[in-house]
Write a structure and sequence with these properties.
- By secondary structure, the protein is of the alpha+beta class.
- The chain has a single domain, classed as 2-Layer Sandwich (GMP Synthetase, Chain A, domain 3), CATH 3.30.300.30.
- 24% of the residues lie in helices and 43% in strands.
- It contains two helices and six strands.
- A two-stranded antiparallel ribbon has the order 1-2. The chain has a two-stranded antiparallel ribbon with strand order 3-4. Strands 5-6 form a two-stranded antiparallel sheet.
- The longest helix is centred in the C-terminal third of the chain and has 11 residues.
- This is AMP-binding enzyme C-terminal domain-containing protein.
- Pfam families: AMP-binding_C (PF13193).
- InterPro entries: AMP-bd_C, AMP-bd_C_sf.
- GO terms for molecular function: CoA-ligase activity.
């Protein structure tokens, strides 16, 4: 993905370089993972990118904007696991 970090340290994703992430030989659409994240009532916005991984080739990494500060990483992971 293409993005930038502003002078306040805020990260902005502005475009997508490629549409699929290749995980263990499977094509994964970041947009589908973002849709799952956005279905959580406490997630205001989400972006998923592929990052290099020695075992799988790539793996998805999610960045979320929380609707409130009470949501934590463990709760997001639990929500994703429950969605599969």
């Amino acid at each position: 993905d293409i993005g930038f970090v502003d002078e306040k340290g805020q990260t902005y994703i502005v475009d997508r370089l490629k549409e699929l992430i290749k995980v263990k030989g499977l094509q994964v659409a970041p947009a589908e993972l973002e849709d799952i994240l956005l279905s959580h009532k406490e997630i205001q916005d989400a972006a998923v990118i592929g990052v290099p991984d020695e075992k799988t080739g790539e793996k998805p990494r999610a960045y979320v904007v929380r609707a409130n500060n009470s949501l934590n990483e463990a709760e997001v992971k639990q929500f994703i696991e429950g969605s599969s």
